[in-house]
Amino acid sequence: MKYELFKEIVAERIMDFMPPIFSGFSPEIESVQKVNVKKDALILKPAECKESMALPIVYLDDMYEIFSIDEDLDELLSFVAGIFISYTGSISQEEMEVDFASKKDNVIISLINTEANEALLEDIPHIDILNMSLIFRVIMRWVGDGFDAVILNNSIMEDMGLTKQELYDIALENTRRIFPPTIERLEDDIYVVSNEGNMFGAATMVYEDFMKDVGRTVGDENFYVLPSSIHQFFAVSEKKADLEQLIMMLAEGNTNITRESDRLSNAVYSYSTSRGALRKAASYR
Predict the structure, then answer these.
(1) pTM of the model
(2) pLDDT digits (tens, 9 = 90+) for 125-148
(3) Helix/strand/coil (H/E/C) assignment for every residue in the chain
């Protein structure tokens, strides 16, 4: 079954697998711009749907991959229905109708690639850092060891009553509090830098005081920053690294290891702790 037909059938039949309590919901397929990729989303919307509502959502391209394994459509539809039921049953009506002004303590920062996300960046507050962009996310709720979050757009920023500078100041403090930065030796002279939880940890490179700690740890006030993903980067002393090898390592990782949605950059950077400055050292392609 071709993907386009698969989408149509899932949207047409999903309500047959939902319990009566969902009779007032309508399935809709929307194209959603995520970091680095655009996804097809199946959304169940109630009769009275407000823009600020947190709605259950399933990505159809991910479901198509599952369907392609055994092509059992009824089993897949039951699985999708279970996702919707589980999500809706675990969130209260108050949580569905989000008051973003009350979520200021839940705003965090992350870094994404600028060129790969031009469409996404058009409608969201962001700060450009070389070929990367710092964006803001709102943690909606904690689920086990993880969390659900949405990317904060201009409309949400207005609802919060914040300027971009105020948003940055709050998000920076929140992120360091919720996800304290970490440094660990990976091998030989290479260190992995992230945060507790390893979530959007590459953004730690904007913490000037922490980057001085990184320099002291690697033993050099000038060190290379190799962004292995949006969640972490590698740090290595400029005195102990071969820049050409680092570029090859980054290209290999981005091509064969890091998921497309997690890729951050095709560049290796140099950081100077004395200047508190990041610059592009080299890039591939």
Answers:
(1) 0.83
(2) 999 999 999 999 999 877 777 787
(3) CCHHHHHHHHHHHHHHHCCHHHCCCEEEEEEEECCCCEEEEEEEECCCCCCCECCCEEEHHHHHHHHHHHCCHHHHHHHHHHHHHHHHHCCCHHHHECCHHHHHHHEEEEEEECHHHHHHHCCCCCEEECCEEEEEEEEEEEECCEEEEEECCHHHHHHHCCCHHHHHHHHHHHHHHHCCEEEEEEECCEEEEEECCCCCHHHHHHCHHHHHHHHHHHCCCEEEEEEEECCEEEEEEHHHCCHHHHHHHHHHHHHHCCCHHHCCCCEEEEEECCCCEEEEEEECC
